[in-house]
Amino acid sequence: MARKNLIGVSDNHVADGEDRPLAGLVGLSPGQRPSSPIGGITRSLSNITQKVERAQELERQLAEGLAIIELDPALVDASFVADRLGVAAEAEQSLLQQIRDHGQQVPILVRPHPSEDGRYQVAYGHRRLTAMRELGSKVRAVVRDLSDEQLVISQGQENNARTDLSFIERSLFAARLEDRDFSRDVIMSSLGVDKAALSKMIAIVRRLPVDLIEAIGAAPSIGRRRWTELADLVANDDKRTEAHGYARRSDFLARESDQRFETLFAFLSTVKTRSQAVAWVAPDDTRPVRIRETNSETTLSFNKKAAPGFADFVRQRLKSLYLEYQEETGD
């Protein structure tokens, strides 16, 4: 089978990797360098070369005498570890149209399902599988016997070779693998990162509520620094409560993922943080009460030395104070 057909690199219709700078480079012969920047690439040539080599290695694995067969999409299940935070509807329709026009150029990689006879489990190619299912067609696939470790390494390396996942998707994928007791070595192999980079990726996920990450989505334009800054903003419970409340708003959910990140970040940056307690000065110039106010509550702290028994005095009169407050406000 020709190299081009196997990896799915064509001039204008690369399935599951549309508009990716790497896709246009996979056809380079070993050692050949692009003569000019492609697709706005600003990364160093060494980084590009590494990605090309990983893509070529995936191609080599597919070409090792493994036949491409057609499977009923209904018999194929997703990987046991999710690596995406959703796909934009525009990207889904673009891939669907390309496959409708040109066919499925790149086979997906699956393994026999480890616990259900007659079924299969995807290592990579989830978007192609979804598109073929929607088109009502069989999906072209390579079937390999893969261990769990081999599956996640193949899954991560294929996405990494295509520069296909955002920073937070890769980080969440790493954290999910660690939660399933995969070793750091396996995770590093899957993502193509070193130990220091992996530690930073997982650390950011551990500092953020996963449901908040999922609410924001892939945020493809947002890198590690901005996600670290967001983690700093939600470091206390008050800010996390504010963030979750904002993330449920309909206007937030209606935005694109990058915009969801930016609007949440801007909102949290302007939310009142926990202020230092301010002393209340009594008519006798003592300071029997300190007042601390946040967006969600106001706290009064009574100084027992400055005014012994004052806290009990106020507590016993809370009911009458509240009734007086209701009369004043009309509640």
Automatic annotation (TrEMBL):
GO cellular component terms attached to this protein's record: chromosome
Domain spans labelled ParB-like N-terminal: 69-160
GO biological process, one term: chromosome segregation
Pfam families: ParB_N, RepB
Domain of life (superkingdom): Bacteria
MF (Gene Ontology): DNA binding
Stored SUPFAM superfamilies: KorB DNA-binding domain-like, ParB/Sulfiredoxin
Family named by the database record: Belongs to the ParB family.
Protein name: Plasmid partitioning protein RepB
Species in which this protein is naturally found: Ensifer oleiphilus
Gene field: repB
